[in-house]
Specification:
alpha+beta; single chain; 20% strand
Length: 171
């Protein structure tokens, strides 16, 4: 594992994970779960295989037990978002969920404390995650505009291509 990835994980563990634990999540990096009476909220970090970034995948699970691909019952306290196919990706921008350049990036040197700044961007996404866990969906149009306002001063963005995307969404 690269030293940059280790630094990013340490920052997430210091800044983000305590907030999630305060909200009832348990687990260990990169998988967390909040077991509620009627469902389980799941979070998993997925890192870019080329380094320098990650995305968060979240989902709900509403059953009393989970049977894995080996036809064995997996304890719910071991269930992760990667066990399920219906997941929502959480990233700073949501225009193209398949493109890793839109993931949380820590491989750019535009910040002095880049790892902590990226962790703070993740904290900004907690309301979006809660919206998904509560309703099963996210209002994409509203979220994209809000996301830009929240991070415009923190992330160097290719504003021309970003504004083209915004213009195309509303015209």
């Amino acid at each position: 594992m690269s030293s940059e990835r280790t630094e990013m994980i340490n920052s997430l563990k210091e800044i983000v994970i305590p907030e999630w634990k305060n909200e009832g999540f348990s687990g260990s990096f990169p998988h967390y779960r909040r077991i509620l009476p009627d469902k389980i909220n799941l979070i998993t970090f997925q890192f870019d295989r080329n380094g320098g970034g990650f995305v968060i995948e979240i989902t709900n699970y509403n059953e009393k037990e989970f049977i894995d691909v080996k036809n064995e019952i997996l304890p719910l306290n071991k269930l992760t978002a990667h066990h399920l196919f219906d997941r929502q990706r959480i990233q700073p921008f949501t225009f193209d969920e398949s493109d890793t350049k839109n993931w949380f990036r820590y491989d750019n040197d535009d910040f002095f404390h880049k790892y902590d700044e990226v962790s703070k961007l993740v904290l900004n996404k907690i309301p979006t995650m809660e919206e998904y866990w509560n309703s099963g969906k996210i209002n994409i149009e509203e979220k994209n505009v809000t996301d830009f306002v929240q991070i415009e001063d923190k992330v160097k963005v290719n504003k021309i291509s970003f504004w083209k995307k915004i213009k195309n969404k509303f015209t």
